[in-house]
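We treat protein structure as text, and this decision shapes the records that our systems exchange. Because each token names a local backbone shape, the row as a whole describes the fold. For reference, a complete record is included directly beneath this paragraph.
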Amino acid sequence: MSAIDVRGLEREFKGSIKAVDGIDLNIAEGEVYGFLGPNGAGKTTTVRMLVTLLRPTGGTALVAGYNVATEPAKVRRRIGVALQDAALDLLMTGRELIELQATLHAIPRASVRARGQDLIERVGLSKAQDRRVGTYSGGMRRRLDLAMALIHEPQVLFLDEPTTGLDPVSRMTLWDEVRRLKNDGTTVFLTTQYLEEADQLADRVGIISAGKIVAEGTPASLKAQVGDPRLDIGLLDDADAVPAEAVLARFGPLLEPLKPGRLLISVPDGAAEIAPIVRALDEAGIGVANLDLLEPTLDDVFVEKTGRHLEGAEGEQDA
């Protein structure tokens, strides 16, 4: 059985504005699915429908085997949700909040303390569990929200941009927890603005633009669609550029270089082609100063499919 099965899902707002326009999704149990899209693409609307906060105006969506429109209570019992803006009582302590969440999910009283303590330790909040949440940093609140979403051991976990604005340590902690959840068989639906995050964590990625799914597949397969790896070569002597071009032409057509004074060639087999190219240049008496193997990225995929960079992509590359 699929963890999430979506057929022709639509959401139309007043004025005939279709925020989500007939999308299909099929996500397997135990899969981490990365959901990407520019602002206004329908990403948040899709998530709100899947977690029963917004009713679809067309199509069907089954989550954990239940219809989000006609069986919302059954869906809610089987999902965990950590939205970007966590609504936490700042006057309660972390331990009190997570134990309250356990009680609300009807977890037996005898198990509440142990279950809460286990999750607090997993998200790295043991030392802060008896402090008021109002004293927590943004990263600590995000980790607490994740622990609360996991208290009832959901079949499907929805994470809405879980690491936006977090420091590197908090980000890595959340990444490790997502990997642990996958190993435990939990399905994770992850929306993110960080392409590296999707590349590292997701088994498959879906890209939504203007309410429609415009690309879907594994990160590797999507990157392969936008082109081969390229080898960027710098020479010791710029005067060797013309003979170097003649040598490289034996391996394939040259591409427009990214910077003046460089040479760029497509290498479909990636790193395996570097040694023969360098050897041929050396035999021709042409010295290589440096070279870089440039792999296609998810940002390349995103730009090709949507015509835009993802909002977090430039800052992520700078980091």
Remarks:
- The longest strand covers residues 2-13.
